[in-house]
Amino acid sequence: MGSKPISFDEKWAEIYKVMMLKRIIEGLPDLTISSEEYMTVHTCVYDICTGSPPCDANIERLYNKYREVYEEYIASTVLPSLREKHGEFLLRELVKRRENHKVMTRWLSRLFHYLNPAYVKQRIVPTPHEVGGLSALGTRCMQS
């Protein structure tokens, strides 16, 4: 009996649940990520990156989805929070956004670290940590 093939869409649906991390970072009440949810996501990323055999198309889709999460967060949350502020209020908001972004990058780059050997090194693309890094945030903010 063979194992059931990895369904990328099913795995991504589980992974995306943890993207509520953005909402937790923003301070929305009553949101938590249980250790079971965290491990489920970790396992889904592992399964996609190390499946037997690993499917390069799924790994590439996962990497692209990971990048999209950051782009969406910056476009829908970070930039709007900065646009209407000036002077001291802008500086305070920048500090808050920087701290939130560092937390998000730390959590997500740990969850997606299996992309490093499976995809990043082969394709010579930014690591998960670099995708969400502060230099990427600054670049995206300056482009808008």
UniProtKB/TrEMBL annotation:
Residue ranges constituting the Cullin N-terminal domain according to the UniProt record: 32-123
GO biological process, one term: ubiquitin-dependent protein catabolic process
Pfam family membership, one: Cullin
Superkingdom per UniProt: Eukaryota
GO molecular function, one term: ubiquitin protein ligase binding
Family indicated by similarity: Belongs to the cullin family.
Protein name stated in the entry: Cullin N-terminal domain-containing protein
Lineage start: Eukaryota, Viridiplantae, Streptophyta, Embryophyta, Tracheophyta
